[in-house]
Write a structure and sequence with these properties.
Shape: globular
Largest sheet: 2 strands, antiparallel
Distance between the termini: 36 Å
Low-confidence stretches: none
Order of helices and strands: HHHHEEHHHHHHH
């Protein structure tokens, strides 16, 4: 039983990070209908900025996280202004190709600056707690608490603030939002900034128990797409529940079957669920 609960904890850790990354991706898709393939690059840049701020400059872990979130939010907004905004009325394939181009560009830049070596972000929280036969590393607990706090904060922001309401209005009815005077450019920039900050925070939380390298965003991006397709494109609850489903299936499948198949399990689950419910688990649209 302890082994099962230990894998549940591991699944909760993975699902928290996947859900956080998928939240940014589904927000952008819900507002602009852009499948932002560059989101994996934002996740990777967040990890490198946090690494630079903490290891090279010597900043505190939390300050490094704030710096990474701010930098990646700005990078994300710049991408929206310089790339996605000019392509808003272009054929849909154009923004997809542009997003892949941004992903490859940022990977090349990071590899040129930091090289292709694997790095690890140190954590100030190295304690390991024990409870009811479970091993609870402090960093994993921090990931779970931090990710769910951010999800709750984002929910409150979207539901309780005027600016959050404009994002929901844009996601539900773009034409109606224009008619009531909502500034589409401002909402788009705000959405990209939030998505970038979420990706950077997820990367900074996860980097101490994972490796930092230029291609680290690719697999996370693929799984984030699996999650938002699974949960329903543009659905915030779908991104959270989808992240947890993938996290639990990877942790339990990797432990009870084989660690070599954990990625295969995630994609197999996607095929199985979509064959039963092709539109995803939740209704489309930001809720």
């Amino acid at each position: 039983m302890e082994l099962f609960l230990q894998q549940v904890l591991n699944g909760l850790t993975l699902g928290s990070i996947y859900g956080l990354v998928a939240l940014g991706l589904t927000l952008v898709y819900g507002i602009l209908h852009v499948p932002n393939f560059a989101h994996g690059a934002l996740y990777m840049i967040g990890a490198y900025v946090a690494y630079f701020a903490m290891v090279d400059i010597g900043l505190n872990y939390w300050v490094a996280m704030v710096v990474a979130a701010a930098v990646v939010a700005m990078v994300s907004v710049v991408c929206e202004r310089l790339v996605f905004h000019p392509l808003r009325n272009a054929p849909p394939i154009h923004d997809k190709i542009a997003a892949i181009g941004i992903l490859l560009f940022f990977e090349a830049v990071v590899q040129m600056v930091w090289g292709a070596d694997f790095r690890r972000l140190p954590t100030p929280y190295t304690e390991i707690f024990h409870f009811a036969g479970l091993t609870l590393p402090a960093q994993r607990l921090l990931i779970i608490v931090g990710a769910f706090s951010l999800m709750a904060g984002l929910h409150l922001y979207l539901k309780k603030t005027m600016t959050g309401s404009t994002i929901i209005a844009m996601a539900q009815n773009r034409e109606g939002a224009f008619l009531v005077g909502i500034d589409a450019n401002r909402v788009a920039m705000m959405t990209f900034a939030i998505a970038g900050a979420l990706a950077a925070i997820a990367a900074t939380l996860f980097a101490p128990i994972n490796l930092v390298y230029p291609a680290m965003g690719n697999l996370v991006l693929l799984k984030a797409f699996v999650i938002i397709i699974l949960g329903g494109m543009g659905s915030i609850p779908g991104a959270i529940i989808g992240g947890l489903i993938i996290g639990f299936s990877e942790a339990l499948g990797g432990f009870y079957l084989s660690n070599d198949y954990k990625d295969l399990i995630a994609f197999g689950l996607l095929v199985a669920i979509l064959s039963i419910k092709p539109t995803g688990l939740f209704t489309r649209g930001v809720r």
